[in-house]
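Example 3.2
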Amino acid sequence: MDEKSFKKGQNYITLIYDLDNSTVEAISEGHNEAAANECFSQLLPGQIETVEAIAMDMSSAFVKSAKSNIPLAEEKIVHDRFHVMKLVNEAVDKTRKEEHKRLRAVGDDTLKGTRYLFLKNYDNLKESKQQELDSLFISRLETGKAWTYKEMLRDLWHHDTASEATEFFNWWYRKVIHTKLEPLKKVARTIKERLANVVSYCTFGGISNGVAEGINSKIQSIKRRVGGYRNRENYKTAIFFYCGGLDLDP
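Structure, written as tokens:
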């Protein structure tokens, strides 16, 4: 389950995808609990009964709706790993902003222009950027510490079982919670509250919203091809036509 903007501003649609077949199965307007309920209502009873797992972000509205519409949903929800890491990245960036503000107040521009340096995976950085990042660690900046904990958390999804992932997270959590990195501590507490539905990633073969992101790219290209849709119904019809898995053979 995912959301996508219809046009600029707070205009969204909610979509349900079939991750096995990479198809769009349901669409509704908005991105709240009512929108999620509307999506689930479009599924056939047979589809509802055969749902094995549901990948979604940490939206409380989506979680509540899933529990109301899918049998044993509490055991089937998998919070998308990319959404979790996005929250952690945002905490690192907030740490950077706060520290940069403090440093600039005393004439120190060490963190100027480093935003994307801390948001990327270290292995994906060019050698020159890796060296730049290494030099920042020598300064023992709070942002560097936050970034290190972010990189450590990536290992959470590389465990064979949910119990192993839980044990790893609890170790990571204890380390983070004893720091002064308030933005990261806040996210750590959020993850801990939903931990069972984060480590369920290991139980259900590593499902995520990756398929949804791929379909979203296709939807965006359809939207650009016609210069955008002013009518929501036409927009939804186009999504179903191109992404609904229709059999167009005579």
